[in-house]
Amino acid sequence: MSVLVQETPFSVDQQQSLFLASSSGAGLVTFTGYLRDFSAEGGIEALELEHYPGMTERVLEELGAAAVSRFDLRGWRIVHRYGRIGQQDPIVWVGVFADHRHEAFAGCQFIMDTLKTKAPFWKKEFMCDGRVLWVQSKSEDAEREQAWQEGVYE
Amino acid sequence: MLTVRFFSLIREALDCEELQVEHQETLCTVGDLKQSLVDNGGDHWREALYQPNVVHALNQRVVNTDHELKDGDEVAFFPPMTGG
Q1: pLDDT digits (tens, 9 = 90+) for A32-58
Q2: What pLDDT is attached to residue A46?
Q3: Domain interval for residue A14
Q4: Which of A34, A80, A106, B4 is most buried, judged by most C-beta within 10 A?
């Protein structure tokens, strides 16, 4: 049941070990999001993530708590980077424990789908051709978050 | 006083991270504050703050522009979020 928002790179193995040491359950589902090396605009060299300190942590804490009550999770952990992200660097890691696989899969997906549109992070892409572009929000992300609100996936 | 914060492309467009604004009686709502910033800042600020989909936060919670202000509040303006 914890949130970690940090500028320095993190190890996925270490985060999973920390989570396993503090939570347990019959089903563990994790998600790791990495920097993609391409977009519709072309090749991406690096990413910079800006966030709203304080609000970010609170939104993620509330999101984890909402996932617990909705999917009966036994534990959760959300780790998210900010600052400059290089190729191969994980951006986000989410782990959830539940007693059954359906709840574990759904809880992890709910956290990720909601985090994308509700946690105050903004991505800026540094393209291989030298351009610097703020990432635009995607309508499909908003639609997925809305679908969770409407219970479409349950 | 009110603390006003800007993030992402709005921060860059305004070249401003944070402002302190005196909480006058005329600033009843988040929308009043936004209009006051535009009135004082001009077209440049209008373009940044009235672009589509601007998100407004009051004390670090997303709100509508009709939300009432009180002295000491923190208001933030930013584009839709793109985390994960």
Answers
A1: 999 988 888 889 999 999 999 999 999
A2: 93
A3: 2-148
A4: A80
In whole angstroms, what is the distance from residue B4 CA to residue B8 CA? 14
Classify residue A11: in a domain, yes or no: yes
Over 80: is that where the pLDDT of A153 sits?
no
The ipTM is 0.94
CB B41 within 8 A of CB A84: no
Q: Does B52 touch chain A (CB under 8 A)?
A: no
Q: Where are the domains of chain B?
A: 2-78
Best to test chain B binding among A51, A52, A59, A148 (most B CBs inside 10 Å): A52
Question: Cβ contact (<8 Å) for A116 and B53?
Answer: no
Query: What does the alpha-carbon distance between residue A67 and residue A70 come to, in Å, rounded to a whole number?
Result: 5
Q: Residue B81 carries which side chain, given as an amino acid letter?
A: M
* Whether the Cβ atoms of residue A73 and residue A67 lie closer than 8 Å to each other: yes
**Yes or no, beta carbons of B5 and A52 under 8 Å apart:** yes
How far is CA A143 from each of CA A32, A140, B2, rounded to the nearest angstrom? 22, 5, 34
Q: Does the beta carbon of B57 lie under 8 angstroms from any beta carbon of chain A?
A: yes
What residue has token string 């996932």? A67
- A55/B8 Cβ within 8 A: no
Considering the four listed CATH numbers 3.10.20.30, 2.70.70.10, 1.10.1740.10, 3.40.630.10, the one that applies to the domain covering B2-78 is 3.10.20.30
Residues B27-81 have pLDDT tens digits of 999 999 999 999 999 999 999 999 999 999 999 999 999 999 999 999 999 999 9
**Cβ separation A135–B76 shorter than 8 A:** no
